[in-house]
Amino acid sequence: MRTPEQRAAQELSERFSKIEHRGTLGESFSRLKSGIDGLSQMAATRNPFDTPEGHRVKVGKQAQKLQQQLGKILETARGEHLRQSGSLSGQAVERLNLRPNRFESEIRQVLLRMPTHADRLQWLQEISKDVSNGPVLGALLEAPAALHGIAPDALRSIERDFIQNNAPDLIQKQSDLDQALDIVTALHRTAERIASSHQDHAELQRIEQDAARAEAAAAEVQKALA
């Protein structure tokens, strides 16, 4: 019978397989899933030549190895997510010409002269529907809010709307990538729980101490018989 953690890992695997644009995050997911499957299989299958205590020691050591790898795997996944997100942002800049042109100062002045923040937002929402207005947004994206009067969160929302209107495939790829990282992170938490469940440090230490005493006693017997 599978544990709740194993069922959770399987559900996450099914969800991950349905994501179309997951980039290189699949490698991190596979490493986590393989670690979970391997440890679970090892815990469920005892070598007939091993005592129950010896089996627990083997499984506990394997769980320790897995736990030592988990942090690095998640760090790699986060780094890949950041790199690929940057690549998508770069594609948006290139495709939609989200760069300031020689009129960038005038564009910002037009906005500052508008009476209210709501007026500025309404104007920007209108221009975001036209793909040729990339340089207008480009004049604002890297400039301080004091130069154009648009709150940073509002400006990022308008940028997203502009990309959604004119390059929706890039928004979908970013959404898939974000979802993939969320699932990798959830699988990482599941792997941590599984690894921890096989590590009763006090019990493993007791078993190893008992084994060491038994080996020492056997050695004494062999010496006496020699």
The main β sheet shows up as: none
**Straight-line N-to-C gap:** 50 Å
Kindly name the structural category: mainly alpha
Treating each run of at least 4 consecutive H or I residues as one helix, how many helices? 9
As a whole number of angstroms, the C-alpha radius of gyration is: 29 Å
Q: Number of DSSP strands?
A: 0
> Can you give the mean pLDDT?
86
Low-confidence stretches: none
Shape: rod-shaped
In helices, the fraction of residues equals: over 70%
Order of helices and strands: HHHHHHHHH
What fraction strand? under 5%
Folded structure, characterized:
The chain is built from 9 helices and no strands. The chain has helices at about 5-15, 25-45, 50-95, 105-115, 115-125, 135-140, 150-165, 170-195, 200-225. Helix 1 (about 5-15) runs antiparallel to helix 8 (about 170-195), helix 2 (about 25-45) runs parallel beside helix 8 (about 170-195) and helix 3 runs antiparallel to helix 8 (about 170-195). The longest helix has about 45 residues, at about 50-95. The mean pLDDT is about 85.
Tell me briefly what this model is:
With 226 residues, the protein is mainly alpha-helical. Helices cover 79% and strands 0% of the residues. The chain has helices at 4-17, 25-44, 52-96, 104-113, 117-127, 134-141, 152-166, 168-197, 201-225.
Features:
226 residues, mainly alpha, 9 helices, 79% helix
Secondary structure layout plus pairing:
Layout: H1 4-17, H2 25-44, H3 52-96, H4 104-113, H5 117-127, H6 134-141, H7 152-166, H8 168-197, H9 201-225
